[in-house]
Amino acid sequence: MPDVGAIRIKGTFWNIPRIDPIHFTAEKLRSIIAGTADPHPSESDASRVELLWLDVSCIDQTPASREKAQEIGRQAKIFRGAEHVFVWLTTHDQSFNTVWASEMEPRFQLMCGPTFHTCVDIRDWTMEVTMIVADFLADPWFSSLWTLQETFLSPEAVILSGDAMKSSIDLFRLRFISEAFETIKDALNYDEKTRKADGECGLGAMIDRTGLLVCLNQDSMGLLTAAGNRTTRHEEDRVYGIINNSFNGEHFK
Fold it and tell me: Is this prediction's pTM over 0.70?
């Protein structure tokens, strides 16, 4: 990508990686940083953010550097200590989220209603919801090992759409999605009919593979299992990286 430039961050002495524009451009990243630093309209008494940490810019990208290892090792402290954490789903714009919610909400309400197990075609419902959930999970954020770590450390993170500024959206938290998926999983385990439909469509298994539920419930051992379903450059990070960076090893002593 010779014509793609990296974002310039004052004070960095390492080469910030260039990002494929299919995800976002340097200009878009600068815009989202500026928007995130401003308080949300609902936070009338909040001041502008003075310190913002961004992994792609704040971790020394020099291979095998001591500074890089130190900053990666501080992930648990950084995320646990942050006042707000934001998840940027770069492939989902606001129009996608609006359509997605309009498709999911009536099916979710139907699932929570009194006639779901008696008057609804469970298999058709499960097939429809499987496709809707798959569309949402198609964003690369849900397949990365390191974002699994971030989810575990900050389940209250706020989701930003690809074209949104914080000031223009509702505070839509990752926990809302995780809790909705957990409710769907419970509904699919209700009886033999729902379990059969789930087995045919694979909805529950797809939700499990995301690791969102183990993060929601702070299941440290389940996190190691979920790590096996995420993508990473180094296989050893599925164990050592997750343990050292998410817990500093404390849950596994």
Answer: yes
